[in-house]
From TrEMBL:
<dbReference type="Pfam" id="PF00989">
    <property type="entry name" value="PAS"/>
</dbReference>
<dbReference type="InterPro" id="IPR000700">
    <property type="entry name" value="PAS-assoc_C"/>
</dbReference>
<keyword id="KW-0808">Transferase</keyword>
<dbReference type="InterPro" id="IPR035965">
    <property type="entry name" value="PAS-like_dom_sf"/>
</dbReference>
<feature type="domain" description="PAC">
    <location>
        <begin position="109"/>
        <end position="163"/>
    </location>
</feature>
<dbReference type="InterPro" id="IPR000014">
    <property type="entry name" value="PAS"/>
</dbReference>
<dbReference type="InterPro" id="IPR005467">
    <property type="entry name" value="His_kinase_dom"/>
</dbReference>
<dbReference type="InterPro" id="IPR014285">
    <property type="entry name" value="N_fixation_neg-reg_NifL"/>
</dbReference>
<protein>
    <recommendedName>
        <fullName>histidine kinase</fullName>
        <ecNumber>2.7.13.3</ecNumber>
    </recommendedName>
</protein>
<dbReference type="InterPro" id="IPR013767">
    <property type="entry name" value="PAS_fold"/>
</dbReference>
<dbReference type="InterPro" id="IPR001610">
    <property type="entry name" value="PAC"/>
</dbReference>
<feature type="domain" description="Histidine kinase">
    <location>
        <begin position="316"/>
        <end position="525"/>
    </location>
</feature>
<keyword id="KW-0418">Kinase</keyword>
<keyword id="KW-0597">Phosphoprotein</keyword>
<dbReference type="Pfam" id="PF02518">
    <property type="entry name" value="HATPase_c"/>
</dbReference>
<dbReference type="InterPro" id="IPR036890">
    <property type="entry name" value="HATPase_C_sf"/>
</dbReference>
<dbReference type="InterPro" id="IPR004358">
    <property type="entry name" value="Sig_transdc_His_kin-like_C"/>
</dbReference>
Length: 531
Protein backbone atom coordinates (compact mmCIF):
# COMPACT_ATOMS: atom_id res chain seq x y z
CA UNK A 1 0.00 0.00 0.00
CA UNK A 2 1.18 3.52 -0.71
CA UNK A 3 2.82 5.41 2.11
CA UNK A 4 0.67 8.43 1.26
CA UNK A 5 -2.47 6.34 1.63
CA UNK A 6 -1.41 4.56 4.82
CA UNK A 7 -0.93 5.95 8.37
CA UNK A 8 2.36 5.45 10.27
CA UNK A 9 2.78 2.18 12.26
CA UNK A 10 2.06 1.88 16.01
CA UNK A 11 4.89 -0.62 16.58
CA UNK A 12 2.46 -3.30 17.82
CA UNK A 13 4.00 -6.76 17.82
CA UNK A 14 2.10 -9.96 17.07
CA UNK A 15 1.27 -12.38 19.85
CA UNK A 16 3.24 -15.63 19.48
CA UNK A 17 1.07 -18.59 18.67
CA UNK A 18 2.45 -20.64 21.56
CA UNK A 19 1.03 -18.10 24.01
CA UNK A 20 -2.54 -18.51 22.65
CA UNK A 21 -4.41 -21.34 24.39
CA UNK A 22 -8.16 -21.18 24.55
CA UNK A 23 -11.38 -22.94 23.78
CA UNK A 24 -13.06 -21.08 20.90
CA UNK A 25 -16.57 -22.11 21.87
CA UNK A 26 -17.09 -18.86 23.71
CA UNK A 27 -15.88 -16.65 20.91
CA UNK A 28 -18.71 -14.90 18.96
CA UNK A 29 -19.19 -16.53 15.59
CA UNK A 30 -17.73 -19.86 16.64
CA UNK A 31 -20.77 -21.23 18.44
CA UNK A 32 -21.40 -23.86 15.76
CA UNK A 33 -17.78 -25.09 15.53
CA UNK A 34 -17.29 -28.65 16.73
CA UNK A 35 -15.90 -29.09 20.26
CA UNK A 36 -12.79 -30.82 18.96
CA UNK A 37 -11.52 -27.66 17.20
CA UNK A 38 -9.42 -25.32 19.34
CA UNK A 39 -8.14 -21.83 18.70
CA UNK A 40 -4.67 -23.37 18.63
CA UNK A 41 -5.72 -25.60 15.70
CA UNK A 42 -7.14 -22.65 13.80
CA UNK A 43 -3.99 -20.57 14.35
CA UNK A 44 -1.77 -23.45 13.28
CA UNK A 45 -3.87 -23.85 10.16
CA UNK A 46 -3.36 -20.17 9.31
CA UNK A 47 0.33 -20.50 10.09
CA UNK A 48 0.76 -23.44 7.74
CA UNK A 49 -1.47 -22.08 4.93
CA UNK A 50 0.32 -21.98 1.52
CA UNK A 51 -0.89 -18.42 0.84
CA UNK A 52 0.77 -15.35 2.43
CA UNK A 53 -1.49 -14.04 5.23
CA UNK A 54 -1.15 -10.86 7.25
CA UNK A 55 -3.34 -9.19 9.89
CA UNK A 56 -3.09 -5.43 10.45
CA UNK A 57 -4.79 -2.84 12.55
CA UNK A 58 -7.09 -0.27 11.01
CA UNK A 59 -4.05 1.81 10.01
CA UNK A 60 -2.43 -1.09 8.11
CA UNK A 61 0.22 -1.68 10.72
CA UNK A 62 1.17 -5.34 10.65
CA UNK A 63 0.20 -7.37 13.72
CA UNK A 64 0.71 -10.88 12.40
CA UNK A 65 2.18 -12.67 9.37
CA UNK A 66 2.38 -16.40 8.64
CA UNK A 67 5.31 -18.46 7.39
CA UNK A 68 4.24 -18.19 3.72
CA UNK A 69 4.37 -14.39 4.09
CA UNK A 70 7.93 -14.62 5.41
CA UNK A 71 8.96 -16.91 2.54
CA UNK A 72 7.41 -14.67 -0.09
CA UNK A 73 8.66 -11.28 1.12
CA UNK A 74 11.97 -12.31 2.69
CA UNK A 75 11.06 -10.47 5.93
CA UNK A 76 10.91 -12.37 9.20
CA UNK A 77 7.96 -11.66 11.47
CA UNK A 78 10.31 -9.93 13.92
CA UNK A 79 11.39 -7.58 11.13
CA UNK A 80 7.96 -6.88 9.65
CA UNK A 81 5.53 -6.88 12.56
CA UNK A 82 4.86 -3.37 13.77
CA UNK A 83 5.77 -2.00 10.33
CA UNK A 84 3.24 -0.62 7.89
CA UNK A 85 2.15 -2.62 4.85
CA UNK A 86 3.46 0.25 2.74
CA UNK A 87 6.92 -1.20 3.39
CA UNK A 88 6.16 -3.69 0.64
CA UNK A 89 5.19 -1.06 -1.93
CA UNK A 90 7.34 -0.84 -5.05
CA UNK A 91 6.09 2.70 -5.77
CA UNK A 92 5.08 1.72 -9.32
CA UNK A 93 1.44 0.95 -8.57
CA UNK A 94 -0.77 3.92 -9.62
CA UNK A 95 -2.00 6.02 -6.69
CA UNK A 96 -5.60 5.60 -7.83
CA UNK A 97 -5.34 1.85 -7.18
CA UNK A 98 -4.44 2.50 -3.53
CA UNK A 99 -7.27 5.01 -3.21
CA UNK A 100 -9.74 2.49 -4.55
CA UNK A 101 -8.34 -0.10 -2.14
CA UNK A 102 -8.85 2.13 0.92
CA UNK A 103 -12.31 3.30 -0.14
CA UNK A 104 -13.39 -0.32 -0.55
CA UNK A 105 -12.09 -1.81 2.72
CA UNK A 106 -13.03 1.20 4.85
CA UNK A 107 -16.60 0.79 3.58
CA UNK A 108 -16.58 -2.74 4.97
CA UNK A 109 -16.17 -4.51 1.61
CA UNK A 110 -13.55 -6.92 0.34
CA UNK A 111 -11.01 -5.53 -2.14
CA UNK A 112 -9.52 -7.77 -4.77
CA UNK A 113 -6.78 -6.59 -7.08
CA UNK A 114 -3.14 -6.61 -8.07
CA UNK A 115 -0.24 -4.54 -6.69
CA UNK A 116 3.43 -4.34 -7.53
CA UNK A 117 5.32 -5.25 -4.32
CA UNK A 118 8.96 -5.73 -3.48
CA UNK A 119 10.82 -8.18 -1.29
CA UNK A 120 13.35 -7.41 1.41
CA UNK A 121 16.12 -7.64 -1.21
CA UNK A 122 14.35 -5.06 -3.37
CA UNK A 123 13.19 -7.52 -6.01
CA UNK A 124 9.75 -6.60 -7.36
CA UNK A 125 6.95 -9.09 -7.85
CA UNK A 126 3.31 -9.00 -8.84
CA UNK A 127 0.99 -9.65 -5.90
CA UNK A 128 -2.62 -10.75 -6.24
CA UNK A 129 -4.36 -9.49 -3.09
CA UNK A 130 -7.59 -10.09 -1.22
CA UNK A 131 -8.02 -7.66 1.69
CA UNK A 132 -11.03 -8.10 3.95
CA UNK A 133 -12.13 -5.96 6.91
CA UNK A 134 -12.57 -7.81 10.26
CA UNK A 135 -15.69 -6.66 12.11
CA UNK A 136 -16.57 -6.90 15.79
CA UNK A 137 -19.98 -7.65 17.26
CA UNK A 138 -20.99 -4.04 16.69
CA UNK A 139 -20.06 -4.25 12.96
CA UNK A 140 -17.09 -1.94 13.54
CA UNK A 141 -13.82 -2.54 11.71
CA UNK A 142 -11.14 -3.73 14.11
CA UNK A 143 -8.55 -5.23 11.78
CA UNK A 144 -7.77 -6.04 8.18
CA UNK A 145 -7.00 -9.54 6.92
CA UNK A 146 -4.77 -9.68 3.85
CA UNK A 147 -3.98 -12.68 1.67
CA UNK A 148 -1.74 -12.47 -1.33
CA UNK A 149 0.26 -14.63 -3.65
CA UNK A 150 3.01 -14.08 -6.19
CA UNK A 151 1.55 -14.19 -9.72
CA UNK A 152 4.66 -12.89 -11.51
CA UNK A 153 5.21 -16.18 -13.37
CA UNK A 154 1.54 -16.38 -14.33
CA UNK A 155 1.64 -12.76 -15.51
CA UNK A 156 4.76 -13.50 -17.56
CA UNK A 157 3.05 -16.47 -19.22
CA UNK A 158 -0.04 -14.37 -19.95
CA UNK A 159 2.10 -11.64 -21.48
CA UNK A 160 3.98 -14.18 -23.57
CA UNK A 161 0.66 -15.64 -24.69
CA UNK A 162 -0.63 -12.17 -25.66
CA UNK A 163 2.62 -11.49 -27.47
CA UNK A 164 2.37 -14.77 -29.34
CA UNK A 165 -1.25 -13.96 -30.21
CA UNK A 166 -0.32 -10.51 -31.52
CA UNK A 167 2.64 -11.95 -33.39
CA UNK A 168 0.48 -14.71 -34.91
CA UNK A 169 -2.23 -12.26 -35.91
CA UNK A 170 0.39 -9.96 -37.47
CA UNK A 171 1.84 -12.83 -39.46
CA UNK A 172 -1.64 -13.92 -40.52
CA UNK A 173 -2.53 -10.39 -41.58
CA UNK A 174 0.64 -10.13 -43.67
CA UNK A 175 -0.01 -13.49 -45.34
CA UNK A 176 -1.38 -13.16 -48.89
CA UNK A 177 -3.60 -16.21 -48.41
CA UNK A 178 -7.06 -16.11 -46.84
CA UNK A 179 -7.23 -17.61 -43.35
CA UNK A 180 -10.46 -18.00 -41.35
CA UNK A 181 -11.33 -20.08 -38.29
CA UNK A 182 -14.94 -21.20 -37.77
CA UNK A 183 -16.60 -22.84 -34.80
CA UNK A 184 -19.05 -25.73 -35.00
CA UNK A 185 -21.89 -23.21 -35.52
CA UNK A 186 -20.03 -21.68 -38.49
CA UNK A 187 -19.32 -18.44 -36.64
CA UNK A 188 -16.08 -16.67 -37.59
CA UNK A 189 -13.71 -16.73 -34.61
CA UNK A 190 -10.51 -15.57 -36.27
CA UNK A 191 -9.62 -14.14 -39.66
CA UNK A 192 -6.81 -12.25 -41.30
CA UNK A 193 -6.60 -9.09 -43.37
CA UNK A 194 -6.95 -10.96 -46.67
CA UNK A 195 -10.26 -12.41 -45.48
CA UNK A 196 -11.44 -9.00 -44.24
CA UNK A 197 -10.72 -7.49 -47.69
CA UNK A 198 -12.65 -10.31 -49.36
CA UNK A 199 -15.57 -9.81 -46.99
CA UNK A 200 -15.60 -6.06 -47.69
CA UNK A 201 -16.11 -6.77 -51.38
CA UNK A 202 -18.98 -9.16 -50.60
CA UNK A 203 -21.06 -6.71 -48.56
CA UNK A 204 -23.41 -8.49 -46.12
CA UNK A 205 -22.51 -11.96 -47.43
CA UNK A 206 -20.08 -13.96 -45.29
CA UNK A 207 -17.51 -15.47 -47.70
CA UNK A 208 -16.85 -18.32 -45.25
CA UNK A 209 -20.43 -19.52 -45.68
CA UNK A 210 -19.96 -19.55 -49.47
CA UNK A 211 -16.82 -21.65 -48.95
CA UNK A 212 -18.82 -24.09 -46.83
CA UNK A 213 -21.57 -24.36 -49.47
CA UNK A 214 -19.02 -25.05 -52.20
CA UNK A 215 -17.23 -27.57 -49.96
CA UNK A 216 -20.41 -29.37 -48.87
CA UNK A 217 -19.43 -32.63 -50.57
CA UNK A 218 -16.02 -32.55 -48.88
CA UNK A 219 -17.39 -31.76 -45.43
CA UNK A 220 -20.14 -34.38 -45.64
CA UNK A 221 -17.84 -37.08 -46.98
CA UNK A 222 -14.84 -38.95 -45.70
CA UNK A 223 -12.68 -35.82 -45.55
CA UNK A 224 -14.89 -34.28 -42.83
CA UNK A 225 -12.44 -34.88 -39.98
CA UNK A 226 -9.31 -35.85 -41.83
CA UNK A 227 -8.90 -32.49 -43.55
CA UNK A 228 -8.46 -31.79 -47.24
CA UNK A 229 -5.95 -30.00 -49.45
CA UNK A 230 -6.23 -27.72 -52.49
CA UNK A 231 -9.91 -28.31 -53.22
CA UNK A 232 -11.00 -26.01 -56.06
CA UNK A 233 -14.25 -24.18 -55.37
CA UNK A 234 -16.24 -21.71 -57.42
CA UNK A 235 -19.02 -19.30 -56.54
CA UNK A 236 -20.40 -16.01 -57.80
CA UNK A 237 -19.70 -12.71 -56.08
CA UNK A 238 -22.61 -10.31 -55.39
CA UNK A 239 -21.68 -8.39 -58.54
CA UNK A 240 -22.04 -11.57 -60.61
CA UNK A 241 -18.31 -12.05 -61.11
CA UNK A 242 -17.02 -15.60 -61.06
CA UNK A 243 -14.66 -16.38 -58.14
CA UNK A 244 -12.30 -19.34 -57.94
CA UNK A 245 -10.30 -20.48 -54.91
CA UNK A 246 -8.15 -23.40 -53.84
CA UNK A 247 -9.09 -24.27 -50.28
CA UNK A 248 -7.42 -26.45 -47.66
CA UNK A 249 -9.08 -27.27 -44.36
CA UNK A 250 -8.38 -28.99 -41.09
CA UNK A 251 -10.61 -29.76 -38.09
CA UNK A 252 -9.44 -28.96 -34.57
CA UNK A 253 -11.19 -29.93 -31.33
CA UNK A 254 -13.00 -27.03 -29.71
CA UNK A 255 -12.00 -25.92 -26.22
CA UNK A 256 -14.11 -27.64 -23.59
CA UNK A 257 -14.60 -25.63 -20.38
CA UNK A 258 -17.20 -27.93 -18.84
CA UNK A 259 -16.20 -28.98 -15.31
CA UNK A 260 -17.57 -32.51 -15.75
CA UNK A 261 -15.14 -33.09 -18.64
CA UNK A 262 -12.03 -32.06 -16.68
CA UNK A 263 -10.67 -35.60 -16.39
CA UNK A 264 -11.82 -36.78 -19.81
CA UNK A 265 -9.31 -37.33 -22.59
CA UNK A 266 -9.56 -34.94 -25.52
CA UNK A 267 -11.17 -37.54 -27.80
CA UNK A 268 -13.58 -38.71 -25.10
CA UNK A 269 -15.14 -35.32 -24.47
CA UNK A 270 -18.17 -34.75 -26.66
CA UNK A 271 -17.14 -31.32 -27.85
CA UNK A 272 -17.38 -29.79 -31.31
CA UNK A 273 -14.71 -28.95 -33.83
CA UNK A 274 -13.20 -25.79 -35.17
CA UNK A 275 -12.65 -25.64 -38.92
CA UNK A 276 -9.56 -23.81 -40.13
CA UNK A 277 -9.80 -22.81 -43.80
CA UNK A 278 -6.84 -21.55 -45.83
CA UNK A 279 -7.81 -20.29 -49.28
CA UNK A 280 -5.93 -18.84 -52.22
CA UNK A 281 -7.68 -16.69 -54.81
CA UNK A 282 -6.98 -18.22 -58.22
CA UNK A 283 -9.62 -16.23 -60.11
CA UNK A 284 -7.03 -14.40 -62.22
CA UNK A 285 -5.12 -17.60 -62.95
CA UNK A 286 -8.36 -19.38 -63.75
CA UNK A 287 -9.45 -16.53 -66.02
CA UNK A 288 -6.16 -16.74 -67.92
CA UNK A 289 -6.55 -20.49 -68.29
CA UNK A 290 -10.15 -19.95 -69.37
CA UNK A 291 -9.06 -17.40 -72.01
CA UNK A 292 -6.48 -19.86 -73.30
CA UNK A 293 -9.11 -22.60 -73.40
CA UNK A 294 -11.60 -20.37 -75.22
CA UNK A 295 -8.91 -19.35 -77.70
CA UNK A 296 -8.13 -23.01 -78.31
CA UNK A 297 -11.84 -23.67 -78.81
CA UNK A 298 -12.02 -20.81 -81.31
CA UNK A 299 -9.17 -22.35 -83.31
CA UNK A 300 -10.78 -25.79 -83.07
CA UNK A 301 -14.17 -24.50 -84.20
CA UNK A 302 -12.56 -22.51 -87.03
CA UNK A 303 -10.79 -25.66 -88.22
CA UNK A 304 -14.02 -27.63 -87.97
CA UNK A 305 -15.88 -24.93 -89.91
CA UNK A 306 -13.22 -24.98 -92.62
CA UNK A 307 -13.35 -28.77 -92.80
CA UNK A 308 -17.13 -28.69 -92.87
CA UNK A 309 -17.11 -26.00 -95.55
CA UNK A 310 -14.83 -28.13 -97.71
CA UNK A 311 -17.04 -31.15 -97.06
CA UNK A 312 -20.15 -29.18 -97.98
CA UNK A 313 -18.56 -27.78 -101.15
CA UNK A 314 -17.31 -31.15 -102.33
CA UNK A 315 -20.59 -32.84 -101.38
CA UNK A 316 -22.46 -30.18 -103.34
CA UNK A 317 -20.19 -30.67 -106.34
CA UNK A 318 -20.61 -34.45 -106.14
CA UNK A 319 -24.34 -33.99 -105.90
CA UNK A 320 -24.30 -31.73 -108.96
CA UNK A 321 -22.14 -34.16 -110.97
CA UNK A 322 -24.19 -37.22 -110.14
CA UNK A 323 -27.23 -35.94 -112.05
CA UNK A 324 -25.60 -35.58 -115.55
CA UNK A 325 -23.62 -38.76 -114.97
CA UNK A 326 -26.82 -40.62 -114.36
CA UNK A 327 -28.24 -39.16 -117.57
CA UNK A 328 -25.17 -40.25 -119.57
CA UNK A 329 -25.32 -43.73 -118.06
CA UNK A 330 -28.96 -43.96 -119.02
CA UNK A 331 -28.18 -42.82 -122.56
CA UNK A 332 -25.42 -45.40 -122.98
CA UNK A 333 -27.72 -48.08 -121.67
CA UNK A 334 -30.01 -47.23 -124.55
CA UNK A 335 -27.28 -47.83 -127.13
CA UNK A 336 -29.77 -48.66 -129.83
CA UNK A 337 -31.09 -45.09 -129.74
CA UNK A 338 -27.70 -43.40 -129.65
CA UNK A 339 -25.96 -42.46 -132.87
CA UNK A 340 -22.97 -44.71 -133.51
CA UNK A 341 -20.58 -41.76 -133.65
CA UNK A 342 -21.94 -40.36 -130.38
CA UNK A 343 -21.41 -43.50 -128.33
CA UNK A 344 -17.57 -43.22 -127.96
CA UNK A 345 -17.87 -39.59 -126.99
CA UNK A 346 -20.48 -40.31 -124.31
CA UNK A 347 -18.37 -43.21 -123.04
CA UNK A 348 -15.33 -40.96 -122.78
CA UNK A 349 -17.31 -38.23 -120.99
CA UNK A 350 -18.74 -40.79 -118.58
CA UNK A 351 -15.36 -42.29 -117.77
CA UNK A 352 -13.84 -38.83 -117.15
CA UNK A 353 -16.78 -37.83 -114.97
CA UNK A 354 -16.59 -41.03 -112.94
CA UNK A 355 -12.84 -40.54 -112.42
CA UNK A 356 -13.47 -36.94 -111.26
CA UNK A 357 -16.29 -38.07 -109.02
CA UNK A 358 -14.12 -40.79 -107.50
CA UNK A 359 -11.27 -38.30 -106.94
CA UNK A 360 -13.58 -35.89 -105.12
CA UNK A 361 -14.94 -38.68 -102.95
CA UNK A 362 -11.41 -39.72 -102.00
CA UNK A 363 -10.45 -36.17 -100.90
CA UNK A 364 -13.75 -35.59 -99.10
CA UNK A 365 -12.82 -35.03 -95.39
CA UNK A 366 -14.07 -37.89 -93.29
CA UNK A 367 -15.95 -37.30 -90.09
CA UNK A 368 -13.81 -38.13 -87.06
CA UNK A 369 -14.91 -40.97 -84.83
CA UNK A 370 -15.29 -39.32 -81.44
CA UNK A 371 -15.44 -41.10 -78.11
CA UNK A 372 -18.23 -40.16 -75.75
CA UNK A 373 -17.82 -38.78 -72.27
CA UNK A 374 -19.93 -37.02 -69.67
CA UNK A 375 -20.77 -33.59 -71.07
CA UNK A 376 -22.14 -30.44 -69.43
CA UNK A 377 -24.52 -28.72 -71.87
CA UNK A 378 -24.51 -25.47 -69.88
CA UNK A 379 -20.74 -25.23 -70.22
CA UNK A 380 -20.89 -25.87 -73.99
CA UNK A 381 -23.50 -23.12 -74.52
CA UNK A 382 -21.62 -20.70 -72.28
CA UNK A 383 -18.40 -21.32 -74.25
CA UNK A 384 -20.21 -20.65 -77.54
CA UNK A 385 -21.63 -17.37 -76.23
CA UNK A 386 -18.15 -16.25 -75.19
CA UNK A 387 -16.69 -17.27 -78.56
CA UNK A 388 -19.50 -15.45 -80.41
CA UNK A 389 -19.18 -12.24 -78.39
CA UNK A 390 -17.77 -10.17 -81.28
CA UNK A 391 -20.46 -11.29 -83.67
CA UNK A 392 -23.22 -10.73 -81.09
CA UNK A 393 -21.91 -7.21 -80.57
CA UNK A 394 -21.81 -6.55 -84.31
CA UNK A 395 -25.46 -7.59 -84.58
CA UNK A 396 -26.30 -5.62 -81.43
CA UNK A 397 -28.18 -8.60 -80.00
CA UNK A 398 -29.37 -8.64 -76.38
CA UNK A 399 -28.69 -12.12 -75.00
CA UNK A 400 -31.01 -13.67 -72.43
CA UNK A 401 -28.99 -16.59 -71.02
CA UNK A 402 -30.95 -18.58 -68.44
CA UNK A 403 -29.29 -21.91 -67.64
CA UNK A 404 -30.80 -24.46 -65.29
CA UNK A 405 -28.81 -23.95 -62.04
CA UNK A 406 -28.04 -27.65 -61.65
CA UNK A 407 -27.99 -29.43 -64.99
CA UNK A 408 -27.12 -33.16 -65.11
CA UNK A 409 -24.34 -34.25 -67.43
CA UNK A 410 -25.17 -36.44 -70.40
CA UNK A 411 -23.18 -39.02 -72.31
CA UNK A 412 -22.06 -37.64 -75.64
CA UNK A 413 -19.39 -36.28 -77.91
CA UNK A 414 -18.48 -32.81 -76.65
CA UNK A 415 -17.07 -31.57 -79.95
CA UNK A 416 -20.08 -32.88 -81.93
CA UNK A 417 -22.57 -31.30 -79.55
CA UNK A 418 -20.61 -28.05 -79.65
CA UNK A 419 -20.79 -28.07 -83.46
CA UNK A 420 -24.52 -28.78 -83.33
CA UNK A 421 -25.26 -25.84 -81.04
CA UNK A 422 -22.89 -23.69 -83.08
CA UNK A 423 -24.98 -24.44 -86.18
CA UNK A 424 -28.15 -23.40 -84.34
CA UNK A 425 -26.53 -20.26 -82.94
CA UNK A 426 -25.20 -19.39 -86.39
CA UNK A 427 -28.68 -19.87 -87.82
CA UNK A 428 -30.14 -17.52 -85.18
CA UNK A 429 -27.53 -14.82 -85.88
CA UNK A 430 -28.15 -15.05 -89.64
CA UNK A 431 -31.86 -14.63 -88.94
CA UNK A 432 -31.18 -11.53 -86.81
CA UNK A 433 -28.81 -10.05 -89.39
CA UNK A 434 -31.34 -10.54 -92.16
CA UNK A 435 -34.21 -9.07 -90.11
CA UNK A 436 -32.25 -5.92 -89.33
CA UNK A 437 -34.39 -5.21 -86.26
CA UNK A 438 -33.70 -2.28 -83.96
CA UNK A 439 -33.82 -4.51 -80.88
CA UNK A 440 -32.49 -7.93 -81.86
CA UNK A 441 -32.86 -10.55 -79.14
CA UNK A 442 -31.38 -13.98 -78.59
CA UNK A 443 -32.66 -16.21 -75.79
CA UNK A 444 -31.03 -19.46 -74.70
CA UNK A 445 -32.69 -21.43 -71.90
CA UNK A 446 -31.87 -24.88 -70.53
CA UNK A 447 -34.08 -27.09 -68.36
CA UNK A 448 -34.65 -30.69 -67.26
CA UNK A 449 -37.88 -32.48 -68.09
CA UNK A 450 -38.88 -36.12 -68.52
CA UNK A 451 -35.33 -37.49 -68.02
CA UNK A 452 -34.02 -35.26 -70.78
CA UNK A 453 -32.24 -31.95 -71.11
CA UNK A 454 -34.15 -29.37 -73.10
CA UNK A 455 -32.53 -26.42 -74.82
CA UNK A 456 -34.51 -23.53 -76.32
CA UNK A 457 -32.73 -21.22 -78.77
CA UNK A 458 -35.00 -18.32 -79.70
CA UNK A 459 -34.46 -15.29 -81.89
CA UNK A 460 -36.76 -12.48 -83.04
CA UNK A 461 -35.39 -12.56 -86.58
CA UNK A 462 -37.21 -13.17 -89.85
CA UNK A 463 -38.35 -16.64 -88.83
CA UNK A 464 -38.85 -19.73 -91.01
CA UNK A 465 -42.11 -20.10 -92.95
CA UNK A 466 -44.24 -23.11 -92.01
CA UNK A 467 -43.78 -24.75 -95.41
CA UNK A 468 -39.97 -24.53 -95.02
CA UNK A 469 -39.73 -25.93 -91.45
CA UNK A 470 -39.10 -29.48 -92.59
CA UNK A 471 -37.20 -28.63 -95.73
CA UNK A 472 -34.51 -26.60 -93.87
CA UNK A 473 -33.26 -29.87 -92.37
CA UNK A 474 -32.53 -31.28 -95.84
CA UNK A 475 -29.00 -31.07 -97.24
CA UNK A 476 -28.04 -27.97 -99.24
CA UNK A 477 -31.08 -26.00 -98.11
CA UNK A 478 -30.37 -22.42 -97.08
CA UNK A 479 -32.87 -19.61 -97.23
CA UNK A 480 -30.58 -16.86 -95.92
CA UNK A 481 -29.56 -14.10 -98.28
CA UNK A 482 -26.50 -13.49 -96.12
CA UNK A 483 -25.47 -17.10 -95.87
CA UNK A 484 -21.84 -16.13 -96.52
CA UNK A 485 -21.59 -18.60 -99.37
CA UNK A 486 -22.43 -21.66 -97.29
CA UNK A 487 -24.11 -24.54 -99.05
CA UNK A 488 -26.69 -24.91 -96.27
CA UNK A 489 -25.70 -28.15 -94.53
CA UNK A 490 -25.76 -26.65 -91.01
CA UNK A 491 -29.25 -27.63 -89.89
CA UNK A 492 -28.96 -30.97 -91.62
CA UNK A 493 -25.76 -31.69 -89.71
CA UNK A 494 -27.36 -30.43 -86.48
CA UNK A 495 -30.21 -32.87 -86.91
CA UNK A 496 -27.81 -35.70 -87.65
CA UNK A 497 -25.80 -35.00 -84.45
CA UNK A 498 -28.94 -34.76 -82.29
CA UNK A 499 -30.25 -38.03 -83.74
CA UNK A 500 -26.93 -39.76 -83.07
CA UNK A 501 -27.35 -38.81 -79.38
CA UNK A 502 -30.85 -40.27 -79.26
CA UNK A 503 -32.51 -36.87 -79.04
CA UNK A 504 -34.76 -34.73 -81.18
CA UNK A 505 -34.80 -31.29 -82.75
CA UNK A 506 -37.72 -29.32 -84.13
CA UNK A 507 -38.93 -25.80 -84.79
CA UNK A 508 -41.64 -24.56 -82.43
CA UNK A 509 -44.73 -24.01 -84.64
CA UNK A 510 -46.43 -21.83 -82.02
CA UNK A 511 -43.71 -19.19 -81.94
CA UNK A 512 -44.47 -16.48 -84.50
CA UNK A 513 -42.08 -13.65 -83.51
CA UNK A 514 -39.02 -15.22 -85.08
CA UNK A 515 -37.70 -18.73 -84.74
CA UNK A 516 -37.44 -21.09 -81.78
CA UNK A 517 -35.50 -24.35 -81.98
CA UNK A 518 -36.34 -27.00 -79.38
CA UNK A 519 -33.63 -29.58 -78.72
CA UNK A 520 -33.97 -32.50 -76.31
CA UNK A 521 -31.12 -34.80 -75.31
CA UNK A 522 -31.77 -37.86 -73.10
CA UNK A 523 -29.93 -38.17 -69.80
CA UNK A 524 -28.25 -41.54 -69.94
CA UNK A 525 -24.82 -42.85 -69.10
CA UNK A 526 -22.58 -45.56 -70.45
CA UNK A 527 -19.71 -47.41 -68.84
CA UNK A 528 -17.35 -45.87 -71.40
CA UNK A 529 -18.45 -42.34 -70.50
CA UNK A 530 -18.25 -42.97 -66.77
CA UNK A 531 -14.75 -44.39 -67.19
Amino acid sequence: MSEDAMPMPNQILATPLNELHADISGIPGFEHVGPGLSLQAILETVEQAPVAISITDIRANILYVNSAFENLTGYTRDEICGKNESLLSCNTTPLEVYRDLWRTIQSGKVWRGTLVNRTKTGESYLAELNIAPVLDAGRRITNFLGMHRDISTLHQLEQELKHQKVLSETILDLAPTIVVLLDSEHNVLLDNQAYKQLKASFGDTEPAHLFLEALADRLDGGDAFGGFNDAQVRFDAPNGAECWFTVSGIHVDELDHAAQNYFKAGNDAENGHYLLLVATDITTRKAEAERARIQQLKVQIAEQELTQSIRETLSGAIFQLETPINVIQAALAMSHSSPEALYPILRQVLDSSLRALDAMRRVLPKAEQERRFLVNINQILKDLLVISTDRLLSVGAVVDWKPEPVLPTITGSESSLRRMFHYLLDNALLSLEEAGRRNPELRIHTSVKDDAIWVEITDNGVGIPAKQRLKVFEPFQSGWKRGRGKAGMGLSMAQEIVNSHGGGIRIDPDYASGCRFLVNLPIRYSSEAEA
